[in-house]
Amino acid sequence: MRLVTTSSVESGTILAKAIYNENGQVLLNEGVELKKAIIHRLNTLGISYIFIKDRENEDIQYNGTISDSLRKEAIQTINSTFKEIQKDTSLHGSLVVEKASKKFSELIRCLMTEIKDQKELLTLLSDAFIYDNYIFSHSLNVTLYALAIGIKLNLPQRDLETLGLGAIFHDIGKIKVPKEVLLKPGKLTQEEYEAIKTHAEEGFQLLRKVPTIPLLVAHCAFQHHERLNGSGYPRGIVGDEIHYFGKILAVADVFDAVTSNRVYRRAMLPHEGLEILYAGSGTLFEKKIIEAFRLAVVIYPVGITVDLSDGRKGIVAGQNIGFGDRPKVRIMEEMGEKVPPYEIDLKNELSITITGCDTTF
User: Fold this and answer.
1) Is the pLDDT score of 319 beyond 80?
2) Strands (DSSP E) found in 271-358
3) E strand segments, the chain
4) How far apart are CA 326 and CA 239, in angstroms?
5) Is residue 131 pLDDT above 60, yes or no?
């Protein structure tokens, strides 16, 4: 299989990985021939990248980080809980959150088990989902990334569970933001941006009133947009005034935001998202957390075509645990000329680096 931009796909191409809706139902199955109308629809829905069949690389396969059944359960739980909170205006949603906290805690334990048991690095790019409400998918993705960071940092089990709850609820305040602002497909006005920014404090005020949830979970919602140099919001606090979990969530939140499919912009690839994090290392984000994140996630997804520093080109065929930037590459070209495919392992070829990615069909 190969990973390519949806916009570059030609009619007649065969889909190699299924595409789902937010309820986990298959919208397009593996093996479907992509006609022009389907490709247009996928682009309209904001699916930036898809996996396609490639005869030369049929054996290159990658499975999702978490099982389809657990992802479906997680999204449905987040979906139903957030919608109930929106309806429960008389109690400001606190009763619904209290009831959901046990369910979420169990869900987080299941997610942790699957992440720890996974023999591959964490990647969510291989899971092509179409979501009607970005908040639900984003909450799950940020939870997975935050847990992966926490596991790499050797946080105790209890801390991981609290961090997971903080991640799953970090954007709960967005239910108070008008939908037309939250889902606006273009650039926000200053007034609209100020409305978006209220979600951090709204989430804090909601969560701090729930007796079954640690106060630290409320502070995760409060602090995930704060930055080390004080340029964040809502309070503009700096350095160690920001809780360590707030710093972890800042990294997870930004990475998922820039690498997710959105109707109004192209999703970045993981290495592009990581570059944004490193650009803010030490000023916006804590370097140690970015380093832990780099070790935990896939930087160059299986199936993507990469250019190497020695002039060769190939397809990422496998990953190396703890070396996300040094995958196994199946060489297809040398200095622009096709060659019989063979594999190299960049973990062992330290003088060679990846200089770029090619996602065109």
Assistant:
1) yes
2) 305-308, 312-318, 328-334, 337-345, 354-358
3) 2-5, 13-14, 19-21, 26-28, 33-34, 49-52, 128-130, 305-308, 312-318, 328-334, 337-345, 354-358
4) 32
5) no
Return d(Cα 214, Cα 157) in angstroms, integer.
Answer: 15
Among 216, 292, 265, residue whose Cα is nearest residue 274: 292
Angle at CA of residue 214, ends 208 and 218, nearest 5°:
40
**Tokens in use for 258?**
């820039």
- Phi–psi pair at 259, nearest 5 degrees: -105, 5
pLDDT value of position 88: 66
DSSP state of 10: P
- The radius of gyration computed from the CA coordinates of the chain, to the nearest angstrom, equals 21
The dihedral formed by the CA atoms of 184, 186, 188 and 192, expressed in degrees to the nearest 10: -20
Instruction: Return the minimum-mean-pLDDT range out of 63-72, 129-138, 295-304, 316-325.
Output: 129-138
Residue keyed to tokens 């299924």: 18
pLDDT digits (tens, 9 = 90+) for 137-148: 889 999 999 999
Say how far apart CA 216 and CA 64 lie, in whole Å.
Answer: 31
pLDDT grade for 89, boundaries at 50, 70 and 90: low
Calculate what percentage of the chain has a pLDDT beyond 90: 54
Hey, which bits of 23-96 come out as E strands?
Answer: 26-28, 33-34, 49-52
Cis peptide before 185 (omega within 30 of 0): no
Question: Helices 157-168 and 215-223 sit at what angle, rounded to 10 degrees?
Answer: 50
State both tokens at 106: 């169990």
Identify the sign of the CA torsion 145, 75, 201, 97: negative
Over the stretch 188-229, which tens digit does the pLDDT of each residue have? 899 999 999 999 999 999 999 888 899 999 999 999 999 999
